[in-house]
Design a protein that fits this description.
single chain, about 270 residues, 3-stranded antiparallel sheet, 8 helices, about 25% strand, globular, binds S-adenosylmethionine, binds zinc ion
Length: about 270
């Protein structure tokens, strides 16, 4: 299924009609539907979404890791929040959706019209391959090809923030659920690697356009049962690339690790 109702052309802002293999706007701008079922809606120079977003092998390893449900406590907490809103068929937008794990989890509990996008074509391709009842497209948060005031619930997990665009696409009364790592997130993993591990600052995005109406924390201990999973988790962290080779090697021989996974959810309303 490819929803197009809330999509707009990134070039001229007009609505689309859908042909067998493409989306066409009222001004004849045409975007092909890839065989995996997603659409690249980047326009102009930034058309290649692999240059800035995550690359192919990172995307695959992220998907393999998330599919093992180590972060299912976050998905469950989000689903609980969404279903408690009791909205019938809400329009949902997964901002920087990555490879689609959270979109999938939400749709298992809440039906509606779900759109998801990411700057990385590789990520969006994997999300589309999940064959969800949803529309995935490649786009940049600085120019989201979604109609003004059309989204009831937006998801924004571990990703850059764009205040103007996020508030533009939200309907009045719409909600943005933004997630940052909790202070103890992966602390036991950091203890294995760093002499003086630090705690996360739990800093939720600051915004003038939206109202931070609620926050809640989700905390759990998970057991990683293989070195491969421990390495994949580490590679997903933002500090992986800042860690020296010598420190990285400290986890080469660890096959099992109990670590805290902790998330802070900010509920922003428009
Ligand atoms: C840490 S990942 C989180 C992905 C997903 N939300 C999740 O939790 O699995 C951050 C994502 O943001 C995407 N991203 C980074 N900059 C972006 C931008 N300017 N526009 C859209 N996506 C972007 C990356 O490609 C990457 O998939
Ligand atoms: Zn157009």
């Amino acid at each position: 299924m490819y929803f197009i109702d809330k999509l707009i052309c990134p070039v001229c802002g007009s609505k689309f009609t859908q042909n067998e293999k493409s989306l066409v706007c009222g001004n004849n701008h045409l975007f092909d539907i890839a065989k995996q079922g997603y659409v690249n809606l980047l326009s102009g120079k930034s058309k290649n979404g692999d240059l800035i977003g995550d690359n192919g092998s990172m995307a695959q390893s992220r998907q393999a890791f998330l599919n093992k449900d180590y972060f299912s406590s976050l998905a469950d907490g989000i689903c609980e929040y969404v279903t408690s809103m009791k909205k019938e068929k809400p329009v949902m937008l997964d901002i920087c959706c990555g490879e689609g794990y959270y979109s999938k989890k939400v749709l298992e509990k809440q039906s509606g019209e779900l759109y998801g996008f990411d700057l990385s074509r590789q990520m969006v391709r994997l999300a589309a391959r999940r064959k969800l009842d949803a529309s995935f497209f490649v786009a940049n948060i600085s120019h989201i090809p979604i109609e003004d005031e059309s989204v009831d619930i937006a998801f924004h997990f571990f990703a850059p923030f764009h205040e103007n665009e996020f508030s533009r696409v939200l309907r009045k009364g719409g909600v943005l659920l933004s997630v940052v790592p909790g202070e103890n997130h992966l602390f036991e993993l950091k203890e294995k690697i760093y002499d003086t591990p630090y705690k996360n600052d739990e800093q939720l995005p600051e915004t003038k356009n939206l109202n931070l109406s609620d926050t809640f924390k989700i905390s759990k201990t998970v057991s990683l049962e293989s070195n491969e999973d421990i390495q994949s988790l580490f590679a997903m962290t933002p500090y992986y690339y800042r860690t020296s080779q010598k420190d990285k090697e400290k986890i080469h021989l660890i096959d099992r690790l109990e670590t805290t996974v902790e998330f802070v959810v900010g509920v922003y309303t428009k």
